[in-house]
TrEMBL record:
This is NAD(P)-dependent oxidoreductase. It comes from the Bacteria. InterPro entries: 6PGD_dom2, 6PGDH_NADP-bd, HIBADH-related, HIBADH-related_NP60_sf, NAD(P)-bd_dom_sf, RedAm-like_C. The keyword Mitochondrion does not apply.
Length: 289
């Protein structure tokens, strides 16, 4: 064995991670709130324990794959004494500030903390395309890297524990906005009887062609020199997006995902910025606190 790793949480993701670690030669100690879920793991060679304290005593590396921030804190806090001196890798999805809060709690208790974000679904763990982001203690990353590399490509984002989660959530934001757009296209084409899967195929081809434009389109954001527009300007884009909304309405459907964009473009036009690059709408995303 390459050593023992304790896994807390045997949901779909925790189970895939535990199985992959065993497959690559690690011994596993497993804990799950609902004890029955440990059974298939025990059959596959894992040792099941009834408490997180026991899981911490069994290994120098403890990997948490629970539901959310609250479940991590409520379950790990009682085991802080046993976790002292251990490396805790928290792969549970949390917001950047939740990750930072757990990092601060870990530091207070002498626990070496690495936060992680999984850019994969359970079936992808250990397979091509799986990518995991990490941030927090650099030494924890160095110690756990050989094991973590068996799960997928690894990227260390920095020592601020919130950075892995921040990038995770930024990428997921782009994904959900994109899928909102896919639904809009499907809704438009459905009005003339086109099946969703057929529209999805057309959308896939179109998005694949335009995705490479993402980098050149946003390049101007770094300099902030929007006017005159290096790319499409506010006037052009406002007309284009407005016609998309009109077309949707003509077919009897709304355009809920597009309307906020037009609202921002309207604001830019109303303040005399018709000739600025349309991506300057990014400057309107800041919120006052
Ligand atoms: P599941 O719903 O399959 O499993 C959830 C796990 O969390 C179970 O082990 C469950 O225990 C445990 N749990 C939930 N609430 C508590 C609690 N209050 N106290 C103790 N344990 C609790 O989810 P996944 O395994 O899919 O997800 C786990 C994490 O991985 C999540 O943070 C998720 O965002 C992240 N992730 C998942 C991906 C996916 O595609 N599935 C992709 C990327 C990240 P019990 O069995 O007792 O209910």
């Amino acid at each position: 064995s390459k050593g023992t790793i304790s896994i807390l949480g045997l949901g779909a993701m925790g189970s895939a991670i535990a199985a992959r670690l065993r497959e690559t030669g690690y011994a596993t100690t497993v804990w799950n709130r609902t004890a029955a879920k440990t059974e298939p793991h025990v059959k596959a060679g894992a040792i099941a324990v009834a408490t997180i304290s026991e899981a911490a005593q069994a290994s120098d590396i403890v990997v948490a794959v629970l539901l959310d921030h609250a479940s991590v804190r409520e379950n790990l806090e009682p085991a802080a004494t046993e976790l002292k001196g251990k490396v805790l890798v928290n792969l549970t999805t949390t917001t950047p500030n939740e990750s930072r809060a757990t990092a601060a709690w870990a530091a207070d208790h002498g626990i070496t903390y690495l936060d992680g974000a999984i850019m994969a679904v359970p079936a992808m763990i250990g397979r091509p395309g799986s990518r995991l982001l990490y941030s927090g203690d650099e030494n924890a990353y160095a110690i756990t890297k050989p094991a973590l590399e068996t799960l997928g490509a690894t990227d260390f984002e920095g020592t601020d524990a919130g950075l892995a989660s921040l990038k995770d959530m930024a990428l997921l934001s782009a994904m959900y906005a994109m899928f909102g757009g896919v639904l809009q296209a499907v809704a438009m084409m459905r009005t003339v009887g086109v099946p969703a899967t057929q529209t999805a195929r057309d959308v896939t081809a179109w998005l694949s062609a335009v995705v490479p434009l993402a980098e050149p389109t946003v390049a101007v954001v770094d300099s902030g020199e929007y006017d005159p527009a290096p790319g499409q300007d506010v006037a052009f884009t406002r007309t284009a997006v407005r016609s998309l909304i009109t077309a949707a309405r003509e077919q009897g459907i709304g355009a809920d995902f597009l309307e906020p964009l037009v609202k921002h473009l309207d604001e830019l036009a109303a303040t005399g910025r018709d000739t600025a690059d349309w991506v300057s709408v990014i400057e309107q995303l800041s919120i006052a606190d």
